[in-house]
Each structure stands twice: as structure tokens, then as C-alpha cells.
């Protein structure tokens, strides 16, 4: 059996407790759902594994992962802007400290992108800097969606070519 097919499933072999079986663990939204499948109760190692895989698949079907991972578009409890990926912070440049609103996101290829908007009493207002950061984040998320669509198209073309 391929290793990838055993995602969220662990083998347990504790001789001292005479405990042998498969342990399924799936976490969604901070809640862990888990169950142990004993070799003895399920007719051996193979039977227990089959039951564990079926249970894992059922859990994943009932509780699918969010489309973009767990934290991509979710608001953290520490977030004070009201928008995921947008925060107020300070930036030091040539010895001076500036207050900024920043927007950040990670592209599908793993590169991290940050856009910062400075504000000050004699320059851009804090409200305007925040608005620009939110707008930059929205454009970044649109860029991510576009990149993912293109990647899916490329994968489909590659799959079609391989079939032919």
C-alpha cells in the first residue's frame, strides 16, 4: 500500500499493553476526531487497516478541508484590522520609525508578498493607508486565484497528453 494512502492513520504497536491496531486522527477547525481500530476486534492487521481507511475517508468527506487551507482567509483572534492578512505595524528605516498598514499573502509557488502603506499626521491618513492595504490584499488574493486556475489548466493539459 502506498504511504500517501495512510495519511491521518498511524500504526500502534504497544507490547506492554498488548495493544495493536491503527489510529485515525483528523483535525478540522481546531477539533480532533480520532478512533482506534484494534487488530483483534477487526480480524487482524489487514481488516483493521481497511476499517481505519474507511473511517478516515468518511471523516474527510463529512469534514472537508477549507478550500485554501486552514488559515488563508480566516480571521485570527489576534487580528485587529477585521481583515485576514492585513495588520497595523511599525517599520524602521534609516533610524526612523514609521507606522504602517501592511497586507500580506503567499503565492502558490511559496513566495511571500507584502505591501506596506505608511501613514503620518502630515501625510496619508491612517484610514486611507488601511483602505489601501485591504485593497492590496484583495488584489493579491485575486492573483492567487488566477495562478491556481492556470496551474489547474496546465495539469489538465498534461494529463490529457499522457492519456493520448
Total tally of structural domains? 2
Order of strands across the main sheet: 1-2-3
H/E element order: EEEHEEEH
Secondary structure tally, helices: 2
Number of beta-strand segments: 6
Low-confidence stretches: none
- The percent range for strand residues is 25-35%
Distance between the termini: 28 Å
The average pLDDT value, as a whole number, equals 86
Query: What structural class results from the helix and strand content?
Result: alpha+beta
| Major sheet | 3 strands, antiparallel
Q: What overall form do the CA principal axes indicate?
A: elongated
* Helical coverage, percent range: 25-40%
Report Rg: 24 Å
Describe it.
This protein has 164 residues and is α+β, with helices and mostly antiparallel strands. It folds into 2 domains: 60 residues, no CATH class; 78 residues. It has 2 helices and 6 strands, in the order βββαβββα. A hairpin with a 2-residue loop joins strand 2 and strand 3. The mean pLDDT is 86.
Amino acid at each position: 500500500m502506498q504511504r500517501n494512502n495512510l495519511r491521518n492513520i498511524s500504526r500502534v504497536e504497544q507490547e506492554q499493553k498488548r495493544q495493536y491496531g491503527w489510529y485515525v486522527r483528523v483535525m478540522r477547525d481546531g477539533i480532533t476526531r480520532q478512533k482506534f481500530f484494534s487488530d483483534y476486534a477487526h480480524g487482524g492487521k489487514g481488516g483493521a487497516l481497511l476499517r481505519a481507511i474507511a473511517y478516515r475517508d468518511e471523516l474527510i468527506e463529512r469534514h472537508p478541508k477549507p478550500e485554501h487551507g486552514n488559515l488563508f482567509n480566516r480571521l485570527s483572534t489576534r487580528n485587529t484590522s477585521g481583515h485576514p492578512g492585513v495588520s497595523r505595524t511599525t517599520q524602521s528605516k534609516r533610524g526612523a520609525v514609521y507606522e504602517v498598514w501592511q497586507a500580506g499573502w503567499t503565492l502558490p509557488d511559496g513566495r511571500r508578498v507584502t505591501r506596506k502603506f505608511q501613514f503620518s499626521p502630515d501625510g496619508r491618513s491612517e484610514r486611507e493607508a488601511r483602505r489601501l492595504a485591504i485593497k492590496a490584499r484583495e488584489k493579491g488574493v485575486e492573483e492567487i486565484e488566477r495562478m491556481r486556475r492556470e496551474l489547474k489548466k496546465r495539469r489538465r493539459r498534461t494529463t490529457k497528453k499522457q492519456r493520448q
